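Inputs:
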Amino acid sequence: MTIKEIKTLYEKTMGEAINYLTFCRDISLQKKEIDELEKNVRIFKNFKWQANRDKQEKLSNLFFGCHNYLNSVKNCIESIVLLKENQPERAWDKLMNAEVFYSWASKVNDCLLNEFCLMDYMKKMEELLFPHFKVYSSLGFTTTKGDCSVCSKKIDECEHIEGNIYSGFACFEKNKKVLDIDHSALVENPRDRRCVPIEISENGKMINYFTLKEMRDLNEKEKEECAKGHLQAKWAMMHFEELDIN
Amino acid sequence: MNDLKYTNVNSRIFSNEYDIRNKSIFFIPRETDAKGSIVYLQSIHSFSKILKNKGFECVYEKGDNVSYLEQHSVDVFLPTIAILLDFYLENKDVINLIIESVKTYISSVSFPKDEKVNVRFGIEMVDKKNNTATKINYDGPKEGIDEVRKCIKELKK
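Outputs:
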């Protein structure tokens, strides 16, 4: 394929995908679109590999931006589908994943980000479809030394710097083993916004923070703690899933 | 920023185990324990590479007893650095270059959507002989770091 044909394919894919970001679209059509996007993410990754093999750094980076942008849209549609299927916690995770993919895509200069303002759309989705989270959990933990995501060497044995993109591949540390939890904190600005409250105590019950549905009665010990003014909460403390950025 | 403390491991780093005259920058561990375990901040890997690109070799422990602290807040934490006087006198621009490296690191790990990036750091010059210390603290946007250089000139006098 020529670059012009690839660009046309990308614009066509994006144009169709954005159409399914509208909430009221049929869920089965949205699922079909998710499959289509998955396929196109793979296609653009293949373009990237070819450009990488041909040592075309700028083009490799461009395709990196494309597949991450497509993945971002895909995660947004998945978030909508999960909301329709009454799985708001997973829908929130998907929306946050979409933000991460978008952030990586936006690191690429001249990325074909499309005229559609996906970031604004995601912000609106967040405001209108999910509860407001005042604080998030933030863990501090010690790990072993991991590997470089670009060259797979130990992270201190190569020259790649975290956060940079090298010929279409983002550098981050992977395959780390968590050794110990150092601290946990509640913060307004976490690195991982998937770490949100899932259930909180209210009037002797645990209430789902997303749906407000009563989940269970508090046990005696929990009731005693609540009587002292303590809040009982079930919290997503940490996500170990590594997103498919590369 | 951590205090400059001469813990056991730092004593070892500053001892004959390393040729400190030809080396330049030392990373101070965040903590050490009685068993000899050492904890550095996770940012040490990329930050040391950025410094290396500017021509400085960094000294820190890399053995099996080392672990790395990762903090999942949006804040970026960089290791505490120690520079010896001999090296500083031969490389008077080192502080400027370290500050430049901080900017490079922050630009690498932040995303374009991060509208405002604030930086906080302290520079402390310790004169052990006269038991004195001079300190400069900065807390503000990363663009303002250049202003700190003027203060550093004062510190050098």
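Remarks. The interface with chain A takes residues 39, 42, 45-46, 48-50, 53, 62, 66-75, 105, 108-113 of chain B (CB under 8 Å). Residues 1-10 of chain B have pLDDT under 50 and may be disordered.
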